Amino acid sequence: xxxxxxxxxxxxxxNKGFTLTQLAKKLGLDYGNLSKMENGKRxxxxxxLPKLAKVFDVSIEELxxxxxxxxxxxxxxxxxxxxxxxxxxxEKAEYRRIINNKQ
Length: 103
Fold this sequence. Notes:
mainly alpha
């Protein structure tokens, strides 16, 4: 999905028909903070992912993939990394999987 995590939250919130205030209440957040999260001015609290998955009726795996991929993309953008970075990182991740399976 080509959205920031905040845009992903906004899309699901609107799709479910929730106002900012309603979703914030369900998540135990202040609506102003949720608004900042949707607009990319504040990071979403990772500890709230299970609650968000339940509210949006999506799998925690899907939500986690969206969350982590957005954090990685943000870091890559901020560090002005090359487009080769993801290829190298995936190779290193696969290497770690292999060596951890051997142990």
